[in-house]
Fold these 2 entries.
Entry 1:
Amino acid sequence: MNWYLAAEEAQDPLIPVWPEVLIGLICFGIIFFVFSKKLLPAINKALDERREMIEGGIEKAEAAQTEAQSVLEQYKAQLAEARHEAARLRQDAQEQGATLIAEMRAEGQRQREEIIAAGHAQIEADKKAASTALRQDVGKLATDLAGKLVGESLDDHARQSRTIDRFLNELEEKAEAAR
């Protein structure tokens, strides 16, 4: 054991021991060869797959973004078209409403005029009926009164009618002259 210590002490620590360097280089070569043949291709393959996956993901993301932008533009166009259609429908409804109101007013005016005309015709018919009934009643009363005044019966119907008509015509003329 002493001889080993003595041999070590004599050697300079800065100078490498060539047999150890040679064994280290051989081991390094073997490890490098195994890594380059077995491990390095697997690492490169995994890195290539990852790069392709990332690039594919970026392409897919760009494609999805382009598609989303296209869908957004279509949505905006459809929204603008829907707003335009709603405005057109609202305008049409307002025009139809105004037309309907005008038609209803015209119909109401026509019905009002018909009712007024029917009322005037009814009033005129009632006036004639009342005038006829009044003439008969006044004629009968006048005939009875005249019969009492004269003292004889005025049963002759034709004479009664002429007398009554003449009397009422004179009354109407006086009423018209007073107006």
Entry 2:
Amino acid sequence: MQLDHATIVTADLDTARRFFVDIAGLTEGARPPFSVDGYWLYANARPVVHLVGASASGSAVGRVTPRIDHVAFRLDSAGEWQALLERLDAHDIGHQSAQVPASPAQSAEQQLFVALAPGVVIEFVTAAR
């Protein structure tokens, strides 16, 4: 398992994008066709920062904007993914599943989100099976 990305939710997408591109040296790249505005910013060939647009009125109850929304870990093998699912079930840890939509630059991927505590979310992601 390896760290995959951090997601930052902000009402000022352009300022955040300029900081990460102009100052931190990341590059703007391909992003799946999500229903919310945002950018994926790359270090080499990996999208390591996901910026997501939000407004105060669109924030979930108890969640502030801006915020670091979640940290994601990538699992590369089907065996690792299955072992994760088994551990979650064995410890009775609830999770939500989702799918990253396919785009011309990337295949669809599977996601699992685990809420550790209010406002603390961990994502696990793997290539869709």
